[in-house]
C-alpha cells in the first residue's frame, strides 16, 4: 500500500509540526505529505519546510483565513491525489512501520485504524523514534451502533471516544458517496465523518497494533471547546437522527445526542457564570430547568474527577501516565 497521502492541518504549531512531518515522511507507504498552514501567526510553515527530506513528497498550502481542522483537512484532501488518506494532527507523530501494519491486502475495508497512545508532551518523548507495537487484543470491525456508543463518556472512561481514531481512509469511498468533513464543526469532526461513512456502508476495521502517538496539551482544540462548538456537535447529531436508522442505531445515537446536549448546557452555563456572575446566569436560564440541571451535573462530575485526581497523585500536578484509546 505505497499510495498514502498524509494530511496535516496546522495552526501555530511551529514547536511540533517538524516532528509530525518527519514521522510521516519516514513511512515508505507515504507518497504525499500535505501540510495546511491554517492562518498561523508563527513559523509553522518554515518549521514544516525544515523537516523536508528532499524527496519531493512534501507540499505546504497556505490558508489566508482560519478554516479550522475540518476545513483545512478538506482543502488538503482536494489538493492531494493518493488513493488513501491518513490524518495526522500537528501535535502528534507516527511510529515507524505504522502503515505497514495497517496494510492488509486481503482485508476488505474503507477505514483501517490502529490503537492510539495518549501521552503528555513530557511522556511522549519515550515513544519518539520508536516503532509500531502490539497492544494486545484482536482486530475488530465497528458497526455504527458500537462506534457511537464507544464515543460516550463514562465515569471510568471520560475520554475513550473512538472518534479520536485516525484511520487510513479510502478516497474512492468518500468520492463515491460525496462525503467530506463537516466544516461547521470544530469539535467532533472526525466522529461525525466516520458516523456518516458507516451509515453509507463503510467497512471500519481496527487492528491491535499502536502506531499513533497523540500528544495531550492544555492548549489543544479538543481540550478547549466552546459552547458554540458543542452546540454545533448537537446539531450534527440531530441531522444524523433525521436519517433512516435501525432501532438499535437510533437508540445509540439518541443517547449520544443527550450526552452532547448535557455537555453543551454545562459549558454554556459556566461561560455565562464567568461573564456575568452566578446570580445573573441563573436568572437568564431560569426558564430552562434542563440546562441548569445538566450544568449542575457537569459541575459535580468535574469536582468528582478532581477529587479522584488528587487522591491518586496526592495533590501534585504530575503528568498523567500514557494511556491507550482501545484497551486490550
Helices, strands, pairings?
Blueprint: E1 4-10, H1 17-25, E2 30-38, H2 44-50, E3 58-63, H3 68-78, E4 84-87, E5 93-94, H4 98-102, E6 111-120, H5 121-124, E7 133-134, E8 140-142, H6 144-149, E9 168-170, H7 171-177, H8 189-199, E10 204-216, H9 227-241, H10 247-276, H11 278-284, H12 289-313, E11 323-324
Parallel strand pairs: 1-2, 1-4, 2-3, 6-10
Antiparallel strand pairs: 4-9, 5-10, 6-9, 6-11, 7-10, 8-10
Structure keywords:
eleven-stranded mixed sheet, 2 domains, 328 residues, Spore Coat Polysaccharide Biosynthesis Protein SpsA, Chain A
Summarize it.
This protein is α/β, with parallel strands linked by helices.
Structure description:
With 328 residues, the chain is an alpha/beta fold. The protein folds into two domains: 4-223, Alpha-Beta Complex (Spore Coat Polysaccharide Biosynthesis Protein SpsA, Chain A); 227-318, no CATH class. It is built from twelve helices and eleven strands. It has helices at 17-25, 44-50, 68-78, 98-102, 121-124, 144-149, 171-177, 189-199, 227-241, 247-276, 278-284, 289-313, and strands at residues 4-10, 30-38, 58-63, 84-87, 93-94, 111-120, 133-134, 140-142, 168-170, 204-216, 323-324. Helix 1 (17-25) links the parallel strand 1 (4-10) and strand 2 (30-38).
Amino acid at each position: 500500500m505505497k499510495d498514502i497521502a498524509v494530511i496535516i492541518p496546522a495552526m501555530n504549531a511551529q514547536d511540533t509540526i517538524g516532528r509530525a512531518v518527519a514521522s510521516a515522511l519516514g513511512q515508505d507507504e507515504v507518497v504525499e505529505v500535505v501540510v495546511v498552514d491554517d492562518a498561523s501567526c508563527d513559523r509553522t510553515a518554515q518549521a514544516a519546510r525544515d523537516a523536508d527530506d528532499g524527496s519531493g513528497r512534501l507540499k505546504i498550502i497556505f490558508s489566508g483565513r482560519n478554516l479550522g481542522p475540518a476545513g483545512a483537512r478538506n482543502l488538503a484532501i482536494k489538493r492531494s491525489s493518493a488513493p488513501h488518506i491518513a490524518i495526522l494532527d500537528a501535535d502528534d507523530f507516527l511510529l515507524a512501520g505504522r502503515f505497514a501494519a495497517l496494510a492488509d491486502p486481503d482485508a476488505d475495508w474503507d477505514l483501517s485504524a490502529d490503537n492510539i497512545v495518549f501521552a503528555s508532551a513530557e511522556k511522549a518523548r519515550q515513544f519518539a523514534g520508536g516503532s509500531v507495537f502490539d497492544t494486545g487484543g484482536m482486530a475488530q470491525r465497528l458497526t455504527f451502533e458500537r462506534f457511537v456508543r464507544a464515543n460516550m463518556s463514562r465515569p471510568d472512561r471520560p475520554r475513550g471516544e473512538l472518534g479520536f481514531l485516525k484511520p487510513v481512509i479510502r478516497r474512492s469511498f468518500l468520492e463515491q458517496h460525496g462525503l467530506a468533513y463537516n466544516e461547521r464543526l470544530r469539535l467532533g469532526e472526525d466522529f461525525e465523518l466516520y458516523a456518516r461513512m458507516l451509515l453509507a456502508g463503510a467497512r471500519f476495521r481496527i487492528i491491535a497494533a499502536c502506531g499513533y502517538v497523540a500528544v495531550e496539551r492544555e492548549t489543544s482544540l479538543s481540550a478547549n471547546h466552546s459552547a458554540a462548538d458543542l452546540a454545533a456537535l448537537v446539531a450534527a447529531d440531530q441531522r444524523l437522527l433525521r436519517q433512516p436508522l435501525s432501532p438499535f442505531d437510533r437508540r445509540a445515537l439518541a443517547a449520544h445526542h443527550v450526552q452532547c446536549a448535557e455537555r453543551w448546557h454545562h459549558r454554556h452555563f459556566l461561560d455565562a457564570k464567568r461573564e456575568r456572575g452566578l446570580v445573573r446566569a441563573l436568572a437568564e436560564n431560569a426558564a430552562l430547568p434542563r440546562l441548569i440541571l445538566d450544568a449542575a451535573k457537569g459541575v459535580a462530575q468535574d469536582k468528582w474527577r478532581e477529587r479522584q485526581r488528587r487522591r491518586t497523585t496526592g495533590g501534585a500536578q504530575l503528568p498523567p501516565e500514557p494511556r491507550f484509546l482501545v484497551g486490550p
